[in-house]
Amino acid sequence: MFRGFHTVASGMIAQQRRTELLTNNMANANTPGYKADQSVIRSFPEMFLSKLGPSNIPTETPIKGKNATGVGALGTGVYMQETIALLEQGQLQETELNTDIALIDSELPKDAQTGQTGAIFYRLQHPVDGEAYTRNGSFTLDPGGFLTNAQGLFVLDANGQRIQLQNDDFRVASDGQIYANDQVVAQIGVSFAAQPEALMKQDNGLFRTADGANLPSAYNSANVRFSMQQGYIERSNVDSARTMTDLLTAYRAFEANQKILQAYDQSMQKAVNEVGRVN
Questions:
Q1: Which range is least confidently modeled, 67-76, 152-161, 181-190?
Q2: How far is it, in rounded angstroms, from Cα 236 to Cα 59?
């Protein structure tokens, strides 16, 4: 009976965490470059139950012992194992702002071991050390003329240097080259992640490597093709309709576990107040 309480509680906790994840996705449905999170729920290892009973061993002098009779497997609950970012390309939205630049996937190789498609990101200077990465191309110019993202992190060029411009009167070619007064000023830095599932997702749509090392340049990576579109942003890849359906499913699963928990509680009350009563 008490094992049932733990099993049902694990299901409720898993569905609660899944609801929080889906709610966060829905809240960022209009955040440029946001990548939806996906949850992986798996069960705890099953237990094999056996029943112990008396057994007589046929010897000259009978020996009494215990034998085990198999009953069957018993599930011990579920848990959310991990969350994985869905890195599919989002739709483009025109803004007509020179500082808005959409990153467009053209051809990205798959990892030979995992079979997962790689991903490309803009390079940002992390405030502590190393680099951070994002798909949000909604940039701006700070008071010093440096190109920054919405959180004020500096956008880096292909050489890992900050990009400084005199004003927002510039042009970005499809290959990332920035032209001001018909002169090439810099090339927007883009990095390639061969195994993007290994990246750590942080707040504000940022990604970082687990060990803090910088990703290689996408310009020097084999079979990586992409382009940029100025005056556009990449929208979130959250599917609002599907997310709402998944939210309802998670809520119903939580509610079902809750009713089972109530049934267990009623059974325990009867065991204490009725079965154990002495007339």
A1: 67-76
A2: 76
The strand ranges marked E within the chain are 37-43, 47-57, 63-74, 78-85, 92-94, 101-107, 119-125, 131-134, 140-141, 147-148, 171-172, 177-180, 183-187, 190-193, 200-201, 207-208, 225-230, 232-234
Torsion of CA 96, 233, 236, 239, to 10 degrees: 60
CB 170 within 8 A of CB 97: no
Residue 70 CA: distances (Å) to CA of 52, 67, 225: 9, 10, 58
Residue-wise pLDDT tens digits, 110-125: 888 888 899 999 999 9
The torsion angle over the Cα atoms of residues 66, 70, 76 and 82, rounded to 10 degrees, is 120
Q: What's the pLDDT score for residue 51?
A: 65
More confident: 277 or 208:
208
Give the start-to-end residue ranges of the domains of the chain.
Answer: 2-82+239-275, 92-234
Longest dimension (CA), the chain: 107
Long-range contacts of 109-118 (CB under 8 A, 24+ apart): 109/194, 109/222, 109/223, 109/224, 111/194, 111/195, 114/195, 114/197, 116/195, 116/196, 116/197, 117/87, 118/192, 118/193, 118/194, 118/195, 118/196, 118/224
Rounded CA-CA distance 118/109 in Å is 6
Instruction: Check pLDDT > 70 for residue 217.
Output: yes
Read off the DSSP letter of residue 261. H
Strand pairing report for 131-134 and 119-125: antiparallel
Question: What proportion of the chain, given as a percentage, has pLDDT over 70?
Answer: 86
Q: How far apart are CA 157 and CA 143, in angstroms?
A: 19
**Binning pLDDT at 50, 70 and 90, where does residue 173 land?**
very high
State the pTM of this model.
Answer: 0.79
